[in-house]
């Protein structure tokens, strides 16, 4: 990685996104710190990341309003010379069966998981990269199962999976595009207290540690021959629908 490399992790102020940003800053990446509502957390994280002697540019954007993104990109131009790594991580994860999902819910899930990542990929191609670039889309290992409890989420993530493959074709040879499909890493924000029993989580009976998730990112960053692939980091939950999924 060049000393001047820039990374953008969407939804990067909290939880998994913030963890990835911390690791990237520690590895020397300058960071475009994207957030939607978490301004306080983003400001605190900015200070923390700057301790690694990297540049941090804050970027507030609602990815459920993709029509506003081109204006948002203008604010980045001039401040960010190029983008070397884009991680499409931002997500909403709402309950709703196929029949029970509202139009607003369907649109928001599609915009956050598909339309905005698509526009961001186009923007990255325009901005250019300082070196061969990389895009990593955060998917979900449980896309392997036909689970209807969160239909808008799963259908939108499935579309992001297809975008990953098509973008790998169109972005080559300048940019490699891959997916990471986590299993159970963190409780959902709206999870009820208690959490699942270990045997309910996945075949390996433990949550996926954040370190394991990041080590897959490091692997993709270091391996220059992989594009259009998705790696499941999930304790085997893509093989067998974990019982906790069926309970919520
Ligand atoms: N947690 C898990 O165990 C798990 C399992 C499988 C897959 N994943 C995937 O891993 C990724 C990270 O998971 P997570 O649990 O850390 O995600 P999360 O907390 O549910 O969401 C991450 C961020 O997405 C941002 N976001 C939501 N709506 C947005 C919008 N309209 N515009 C812009 N940003 C928006 C939020 O930013 P603000 O806070 O700034 O509003 C939020 O902090 C997601 O893609 C998720 O699907 C996670």
Automatic annotation (TrEMBL):
The keyword Oxidoreductase applies. InterPro entries: NAD(P)-bd_dom_sf (IPR036291), SDR_fam (IPR002347). It holds the Pfam family adh_short. The keyword rRNA-binding does not apply. Keywords: Oxidoreductase. It comes from the Bacteria. GO terms for molecular function: oxidoreductase activity. PANTHER family: OXIDOREDUCTASE, SHORT-CHAIN DEHYDROGENASE/REDUCTASE FAMILY (AFU_ORTHOLOGUE AFUA_5G02870), SHORT-CHAIN DEHYDROGENASE_REDUCTASE FAMILY PROTEIN. Belongs to the short-chain dehydrogenases/reductases (SDR) family. This is SDR family NAD(P)-dependent oxidoreductase.
């Amino acid at each position: 990685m060049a000393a001047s490399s820039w990374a953008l992790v969407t939804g990067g102020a909290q939880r998994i996104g913030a963890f990835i940003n911390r690791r990237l800053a520690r590895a020397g990446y300058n960071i475009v710190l994207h957030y939607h509502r978490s301004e306080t957390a983003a400001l605190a994280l900015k200070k923390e990341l700057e301790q690694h002697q990297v540049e941090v540019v804050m970027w507030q954007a609602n990815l459920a309003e993709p029509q506003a993104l081109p204006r948002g990109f203008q604010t980045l131009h001039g401040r960010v010379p190029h983008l070397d790594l884009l991680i499409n991580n931002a997500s909403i994860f709402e309950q709703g069966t196929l029949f029970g999902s509202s139009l607003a819910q369907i649109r928001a899930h599609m915009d956050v998981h598909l339309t905005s990542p698509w526009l961001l990929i186009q923007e990255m191609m325009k901005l250019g990269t300082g070196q061969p670039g990389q895009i990593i889309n955060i998917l979900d290992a449980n896309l392997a199962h036909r689970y209807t409890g969160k239909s808008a989420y799963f259908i939108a993530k499935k579309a992001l999976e297809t975008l990953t493959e098509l973008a790998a074709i169109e972005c080559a040879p300048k940019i490699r595009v891959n997916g990471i499909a986590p299993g159970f890493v963190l409780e959902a924000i709206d999870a009820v207290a208690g959490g699942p029993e270990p045997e309910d989580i996945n075949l390996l009976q433990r949550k996926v540690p954040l370190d394991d998730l990041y080590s897959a990112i490091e692997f993709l960053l270091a391996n220059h021959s992989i594009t259009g692939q998705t790696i499941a980091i999930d304790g085997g939950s893509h093989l067998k629908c974990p019982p906790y999924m069926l309970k919520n």
